[in-house]
Amino acid sequence: MNKYGFNFQWMFTWEEGRKPEPPDEKALDFLAELGFNFVRITTDYRYWTKNFEYLKPDMEVFSYIDSYLKACKERNLHLCLNFHRVPGYCINYNYLERDNLWTDRIAQEGFIYQWKLMAERYKGVDNKDLSFDLINEPPEVGQYGLTRENHADLIRRTVQAIRTIDPNREIVIDGLGGGHLAIQELADLDVIQSGRGYQPMSVSHYQATWWDGHKGLPEPVYPNNHWDGKVWNKESLREFYQPWRDLQAKGVKVHIGEFGCYNKTPNDAALRWLGDMMSLYKEFGWGYSLWNFEGEFGIIGHGRPGAVYELYKGYRVDRKLLDILLENRL
Question: Can the peptide bond before residue 223 be classed as cis, meaning omega within 30 degrees of 0?
């Protein structure tokens, strides 16, 4: 999975009256010109599902996904289609869901049905162009009724349903615990496992108000950041990823579907941390996808204290961060 790129949010969060965005072709041109080859689209099922009627989607909305795939294919970019909010779960504002993905049959049926629709719609599209990322960042074991057993069962049933329709479809599953924990019990499933690059959270999510742990943290330094009972540096990052290396040793493909740093962390500390992480990904042979392209975690005008921008291809780019991204590809 040596694919490198960015997350895009064109269909990220539904609100009443909001339509999905068209593909940002200027941004995709930027990626293609610099040799990136991966675009992860994070979607919200409520764009095509109203009032929790999971089995009655508005099929016309899928034309937006068609346009994302077309724009990516034209530039030789791989599109990873991710369900960020699914029937019965989202890592953000989960209370908006009526049902529970791990305990309610109606949510599970709706989830599998909607992936079957995607399998039918994109049957035969080459894996070099498209993969399916089933659920963004499942929670910790014990949260929302998730157990290792019922999660593994749901994933196996979903993969089987997709591959009954499209046997060769490339499928991605995110780690547990918000994407951080490798799922050893699914090592036999012939899917890509997708990890995260947000540890230590005291660096990546400093002053991120949607994360409860942000309260009372000192301004982050790196290396040797003290958080969660550990001293974080390159070697502790290596230790953190050992379970993913164990998966890899079993023949499982690993990809880092998201990583990045919120814009309240001083830029020099952020760059040292990001540099260490990406050098490890290169060493391990893993591709990666920055969260996100343009925004508070991105390479374009993110606003981290001390950042220096360069006007490049029509964007205000953190050139040092861009260079780190470029240098750590295989």
Answer: yes
Nearest CA among 227, 253, 221, 250 for reference residue 240: 227
Read off the CATH number of the domain in which 139 is found. Answer: 3.20.20.80
pTM of the model: 0.96
DSSP 98: S
Q: What is the pLDDT along the chain (330 residues), one digit of tens a residue?
A: 789 999 999 999 999 999 999 999 999 999 999 999 999 999 999 999 999 999 999 999 999 999 999 999 999 999 999 999 999 999 999 999 999 999 999 999 999 999 999 999 999 999 999 999 999 999 999 999 999 999 999 999 999 999 999 999 999 999 999 999 999 999 999 999 999 999 999 999 999 999 989 999 999 999 999 999 999 999 999 999 999 999 999 999 999 999 999 999 999 999 999 999 999 999 999 999 999 999 999 999 899 988 999 999 999 999 999 999 999 999
Partners of 294 in beta bridges:
300
Q: Estimate to the nearest angstrom the gap between the alpha carbon of 243 and the chain centroid.
A: 19
In terms of residue numbers, what domain contains 244?
A: 4-327
Domain count for the chain: 1
